[in-house]
Design brief:
Layout lengths: L19 E2 L4 E6 L7 E4 L2 E2 L9 E7 L5 E3 L5 E4 L10 E10 L2 E3 L2 E3 L2 E11 L7 E10 L7 E4 L2 E2 L9 E6 L5 E3 L5 E4 L6 E11 L6 E11 L7 E8 L1
Length: 236
Amino acid sequence: MKVQEDPTIFITDANDNSPVFQGIPYEVDVDENDMTQTSIFRVTATDADQGIGGTVSYFLEAGDETKFEVDRPTGIVNLKEELDYESSSVYQLRIRAQDGGGSLNGSQVFQSSTTVLIVNVVDGDDQPPLFLYFSIQVDKNTPLGTSIITINARDGDYGINNPIVYSAEGDDGTFSIDSTTGVISLAKTLDIGVYSFDVQARENSSVTRSTNTSVRITVVDVNGTSAGMPLGGLQD
């Protein structure tokens, strides 16, 4: 008696699929100077292949490796150090998802794909106001109440615009300053000479930060120059 056996055919899955990222595009906001939460995001990719060819590992392919790292097994993106909005307000991280490898057309191959994670740095209130140095000449016969010069300062945090409050320090009362506009006006009769005093710019916010600048007003006779111009650059 002849026994006929049916052959058993085993089909091996070829590693012919690349990992596919889920939920793209990726974008996250991160507060500057905040290391209380070092894990900022998680990227996820799936691979349709079976076995080791369906496993996925993650790599930071391009981006600032001094500040970011990617956990290979999980795809969790971690902060390595604090971010500073004034240095860089946005980062682009290119992340690669790679499978565990497998056979394809008789060769051992690894399939991969990439995506980009945009990290937006949220500006914190950590910088004092920025100021100009001011110097001006005025006529000694300038009428009382005349606006002499306007002091300008801005919030040192570029992503924040807190109101600035101005005040004079070391002035003998010859001049007055509008706390809101920074306009310095003549309050007393002038004598020929040089008047110097400081002006403080203070942020009107929950975190009080201030900066001082020097104001120099030179009083000349009736033939002197009455127009003024701020000199110098931004101070911090």
